[in-house]
Amino acid sequence: MNCGEPHDTDCSEVLSEVWLFLDQECDTGRRAALQTHLDECHPCLEQFGLEEHLKALLARKCGGDYAPADLKARIRATIVEIRTED
User: Fold this and answer.
1) Which NCBIfam families does its entry note (predicted)?
2) What Å distances lie between residue 77 and 22, 25, 63, 81, CA to CA?
3) What does the pLDDT read at residue 4?
């Protein structure tokens, strides 16, 4: 996705990292860059809002269970692999 407006961080990057942002799993510099983009970009902010509501719904319905660390690591590695293929 791209809103057509110039941003320091591309919309597709922001949306691919929105779960890391929501889970506070990115470093402070990256978090600030993502927040700045969300503050500037209405389409991404709308998508972020949907993701945020989905995360809250999942937390309520799944009892707050946490994924094992090795599962998180495998998912992150897969995401990195997919992003580098583009």
Assistant:
1) antisig_RsrA
2) 18, 14, 26, 6
3) 60
